Amino acid sequence: MKAIFVRPKFDSASSFSHLWCQRLIDAVKDKLESYIDLSEEQATRENVEKALSENPNADFCYYDHGNTEGLAEQGGAGYVIDRKNSHILKARLAYSMACLWGQGGGAQAHSEGAKAVVAYVEEFTFTTGDEQYFSEAANSGFIAYTNGETGWAKIKALMVEAFNKVIDAIQDPWGKMWARWDRDALRVYGEGADTPESKCAFRKLAVKLFGPKVGWKLSKAFPASVALFAFGLGVLIHDYVDTLYHAGGWSQVFSFQGGYFGSVILTIGFILAYYQVWRALKA
Amino acid sequence: MNNLEKTILQYLETRNDGWTWVMGTKVYSKEATIEKFKKDKRFRKLIVEQAHLLAIDLFQKGSEKH
Lengths: 283, 66
Known about the structure:
Oligomer: heterodimer
Distance between the termini of chain B: 36 Å
Largest interface: A-B, 26 and 18 residues
Mean pLDDT of chain B: 94
Order of helices and strands of chain B: HEEHH
Shape of chain B: globular
Strand content of chain A: 5-15%
Radius of gyration of chain A: 25 Å
Structural class of chain A: alpha/beta
Structural class of chain B: alpha+beta
Number of domains of chain A: 2
């Protein structure tokens, strides 16, 4: 088993995630065949892509800031993994301790063939006084995996149990509250465990209509382009029917007209074009 | 502020000066948390919701142990 650890560090919050990842490396390094540690300045998109392409069997482990679009690189200006390159996680475990990635990019990585994705759908939150407890819970899934556990439902259950232990162990009610929050934000997208869900109505519809592989790739421009086409066609037909009515009344409107055939051909062409795009995305 | 909100505020005011917590990219101190809790209605609502959910969780766990 090989692993690539990516852990930027550029602000107060990431100094904790960096430390937690160090604890994880210390806990699992003896069980790994080999590992690459892309820490701080090494945690760039270029280095991550290079390490992943040179190590096709290595699992991916990320500790730092994230959002629905991707996982931040050193400095926070760009991403080491986003929607454009998440396909490189195919056939790997993508284990993250980052905010919100489970809501978008992590779900996409899963639909693109990642073996499993461990991610959070809310902002990861903890009290600094009890950070070690949160660190243990966040690391527990990858430790179980390196111990030979490959059932994703079991790994999810172990992590939930680890967060429950945090709730029991710490005294500070503020910390208990956020341990519960993190536990409920945890997602393990893998066989037998969680299935990605979106809060966005358009995303839900896209996943339902086109399947997860295509549905998670479409951006906001897709429903906008469909709406623009439908609106434009509506205006065209309305004006055309209005002109026909003024030229010859209802008999003219309900007779065969070249404009009607033109609209149908236009719509068929639009559907065919989108069908090609859908096939390309699915491939 | 209702009783729960007042209790949470009282709790925050009794934290040590070095008390901090992290949410995403932001690190909050005791003072910053109190100010946010007083001024930010959405944040206050979130905390009250989470306090309710924690209470439910603790009672559920308590009933499972028996």
